[in-house]
Amino acid sequence: NFRSSASIRASHSLRPCLGLVAAMFRVSCFRQLPLRALAPGKKKGGKKLQKKTAVAVDVPLAPYLPPELTKESRSFFQSQTRFKALLELVFSPGDPKDQEKDRLEFEQAKIEFETVAHKARDIYATHERRAEGRMWRALQQLPEDLYDEAVQSRPEAVPEPLLFHHRYSAEIFDNLNEEERRRLQVFQNLMYVRYPHAAEKARNPEKFWIPENQIVSRQKEAAMMKMKIKKR
Question: Does the reported pTM lie above 0.85?
Answer without folding.
Answer: no
